Amino acid sequence: MPLPIIMGIGAAVAAVGGVGTGVNGGFKMKTAKDTLERATKKRDEAIASFEKKNLATTAVMDELGEKELQICLQFEEFADLIEQIQNRPKFKELTKDKDSIPKYDPEELKKVSVGASVVLGSLGGSAAGTAAGFAAAGATTTAIMTFGTASTGTAIGTLSGVAATNATLAALGGGSIAAGGGGVALGSTMLGVSTAGIGILVGGIIFNITGTGLSKKADQAYYQALEIERKVININSYLDDLEKQAIKYEKALDTVTKVYKKTFKEMQRIVINEKKTDWLEFTDDEKLTVQNGVLLVGLLYKMCKVALVKKIKTSSGEETNIVNYDETNINMTESETVLNRMEV
Q: Could you tell me if 135 and 246 are in contact, meaning their C-beta atoms sit under 8 angstroms apart?
């Protein structure tokens, strides 16, 4: 075969081979592009799912946290009323098996009430999830806040209004600026950071999914998207459980609060309207009303004290948060027992 013909055939074969390689390369590029698009869609859907569930759970927990603070706010009024009753007995701790309802402690109740007032006054400009932090950690966080003293040396618990708020926030900020602390501004920041909502409450499970990028390599990007999806499923499951338990717990709190308000109103009638301030002059029914009031306040205090979220260590040694079913379920059962015993 003449050389020109052979060369022509060779060129034709090479051209066909080049076309084949080009087609294969184009196919791979399209496959990679499709894989990256699927990975991006999967990641975006996972993030949207998380954000939706996070917002819903945050709203429920915010409502519960604020409700607990509102309940704590009432304690001072109760303490002031009962302190008017002379010759009253010591109301002891009610113990049932391993659980107990705290004994009546007017000073503790007043501290919690002042703390709740301060925090509620500071919630106005706070981000969503701030009140949720108090429900997650237990509303006695407010009581702890009142243990400090203002930079002037005055006990924060004796202050009120703006003075109490500023003194508490300054204490959270490490003291007044003049004393080398961060002052009210830093305290306000710390209040937000310490109760920054459900995202932080998830602990070791949560990660910054909204800022998670994907690799430019298609296969690696798809693997990353699958991992994000898996983690979001775990997070959403946790948030779903937390939301459901918070709703149940809030319902139990509402039931006890309703009975408490009715009982407290009756106590006000006895002490304020009828001006009975000597325990020895109380009828048996009136004594029972006061005793029930003390019992209900102790129960509410305990219910607001419990943390809906508790931290545990996983088998890998990482810290994560779980719904505190043990204590919340015990409190809900105990509330039913107490109310049934009161026959309300």
A: yes
d(CA 148, CA 132): 23
Question: Cβ distance 1 to 10 under 8 Å?
Answer: no
Name the residue type at position 219: D
Burial-class residue 262 by CB neighbours within 10 Å (0-12, 13-18, 19+). Answer: middle
Sorted by where each begins, the domain ranges of the chain are 3-342
Concatenate the DSSP letters of all residues of 260-283 into one string. HHHHHHHHHIIIIIS---BGGG--
| Maximal C-alpha separation, the chain | 132
Q: 179 and 151 in contact (C-beta within 8 Å)? A: yes
Q: What angle separates helix 3-73 from helix 218-268, to the nearest 10 degrees?
A: 10
Q: Which residue has the tokens 């106005």?
A: 124
For 61, the token pair is: 């927990």
* Predicted confidence band of residue 317 (pLDDT cuts 50, 70, 90): confident
157-204 confidence digits (pLDDT tens): 555 555 555 555 554 444 333 433 333 443 344 344 344 344 445 544
Please measure the distance between the N-terminal and C-terminal CA atoms of the chain and give it in whole angstroms: 111
pLDDT tens, residue by residue, 52-78: 888 898 889 889 988 998 999 899 899
Number of Cα atoms under 13 Å in the Cβ half of residue 332: 16
- Backbone phi, psi, residue 93, to 5°: -65, 135
Beta bridge partners of 319: 313
Are 326 and 247 in contact by the 8 Å Cβ rule? The answer is no
| Residues 324 and 307 sit within 8 Å (Cβ to Cβ) | yes
State pTM to two decimals.
0.76
Which residues have a Cβ under 8 Å from the Cβ of 162 and sit 6 or more positions away?
Answer: none
Which tokens go with 254? Answer: 């509402």
